Amino acid sequence: MKRLALGLVGLLLVSAAATSADAPGVRPRALTKHDAGSRLRVFGSAGDPALENPAVTAVVRKTDGFLVDFWRNRPVLPTTAQLGTLTDIDAIWQVHPIVRLGDKSAPALASRVSSLADGVEVEGVAVLEGVRYRTRTVHRLHPREPRLTITTTFSVEGGAASGPIELGDEVKWGNTRYYVEGLGQPRLKYEGAAKWVGRRGAGGDLMLRPGPGKPMWLDYTSAKQPGFQGALTALFFKGKIAVGESVTVTRELAFEKIPVAEPAPLANPGTLRVEVRDENGKPIAAKLRVDREGDKGAIFPPDGDLDGSDRFLWTGNGQVSRALPPGRYRLLITAGIERDAVEKSVTIRAGAEAKIEARLPRVIDTPGWIAADLHLHQAPSVDADIGLPERVVAIAAEGVEFAVATDHYVVTDLAPTVRWLEQRGLLRSKLSTVVGSEVSTLGRRFGHFNVFPLKVGDNVRYVDVTPSELFADARRASPGGVLQVNHPRLDPKLGYFTYHQIDDATGEMKVAGYDPKFDTLEVYNGDDAWNLKAVKKVLADWMHLLGRGHRYAATGSSDSHSLAFLDPGLPRTLIRYGRASSDADDVSAKQADVLAALKAGRAIVTSGPIIEASIDGKGPGETARGKTARLRVVVRAAPWIDVRALEILEGAQGKRVVWQQIPKSRRPLRLEKTFDLPVTGPTFFVVTAQGERGLPNAARDGTTPFGFTNPIWVEP
Asked: What is the model's pTM?
């Protein structure tokens, strides 16, 4: 009966689509500055044509003709738990026509955008494999309902299509799972025919479907792992078009409940109640991993909130209460890499409460060092469907003390959210925040760059700029601030070094236009944490650049975009900003002192091992003198973190001068030793430490603990 009911719902959707397409549109108006500034993720600018009815507003960008905004005019709660109660948020990133041939595609870019009496018209051109396609797209909004009809006529102007051409849209509408007609539960990847596709999230469920009785094929196979869903390609025509011929396709974008069966409520659950405190008995933020004994599968939905996502729960005030099906569970309770963990087995019985009290004492003292995550995304980013309160609690639960908000295309301040949580007793661990942005290049795409601190509203130019233009504008917006190159070896559009074809052996850039005038380099990105070969390749790049005379500080950051993927603080940068009487004082460090220390390289990077290294009292970022470098190394780690090897690297080529096995241990002190290293000329040393067993609290199993220092420079 359930399948039959869903089939009837599908028929109703087609009928609704026909009604929407036949209804008259609404007259466009110009987007205002207030419109653009009144909600998150708005890509339209004042003056762009907007279509508005009582329910929704749609915006078409004049510069390229893309549909870039579609939002609810009245507050509607998101339909993904991770977004919390956010209602002032746009629902899409962009939707635009494309022409595809094999594995190549081209967008139809606007030559003219104009207002009609009942819609917005975009004339555009796409060029693919020498063939020129003319497009005419009309956007019409239903006068009352949250439905937008898009009609595009594709015609061939010159050349001849080689092989079957495919016509459709590229859709970006939130970093969340996609539901497809007939599949039931959402899938990370799908390629095939469908009557509709939808996503849950900002503004409620949002669906895309073809015109009545017309076909649609979907392709979203680029996602590599949960957490980065990626763009969706929706195709509405496959075939050949001769010169002078045309094809018209119609589709509808609508806020509408996705017609899939909802998960059944828990039957006869029990309750898990946990209280988490520090060594002084004070409540602290913490993270709980929950595994059903004998079952490695996720317990909670992947888009869940602090009360459960994947296998994890989070608390900002040390209090957890969660209904669970009866059964036997294993718990791991952590609060960052400087504290011990608690492992427990617990039995949940129907209608009963299981209570656990966990003490997580600090086992590694680091006064004068502040734990920083310099690359964090939340709802203002178009690809991060996580609310700000959820993000802040997750950061604090990992023991991060210094958090930099780095959203794409916008400047975000987490401080008001921190205050809001503290005032309501929902956050008991102290957290210092920095206003920043990840400047992600568009048009001419050559990489992503963090800039901080910034003032809210004062972003850096990122469209059709050169590296030198971007860097100059970053210095204008953040005088004396930090300019960081992020994930430099991602694909050429996202990785600065890849775009400029860095030489693996020397660090020389082979493509013109490279600007070396940045401050820090994200050597260890959270997306690479499961693959240390990728991390060590960037580590080698960095050492090559140091050998070429650059004094870039190396950093490690999570690049977290959700709750249960790319955990905040994995990795992190520990910055030696000065002196402090206790670890509790670190979060009160002056921001200027922390940033100055970071730029000077007085820092280490780690996902677990904490390395103290010095030569005659000179640490990372400093210069020692002598013909023999007496390098003192101390490696510590919390008992639940594995550390099994030490390596000391020298100079531009990263020559291994020491490798030593570290005995297996649960004691915080893993190694304390001094190495005498000969110095024949100006050089530098970098110390690394690595484990063999994966971090048990990481979202991705098999994430190996790894840490390294910034260089200690030596002059003979």
From this structure: 0.93
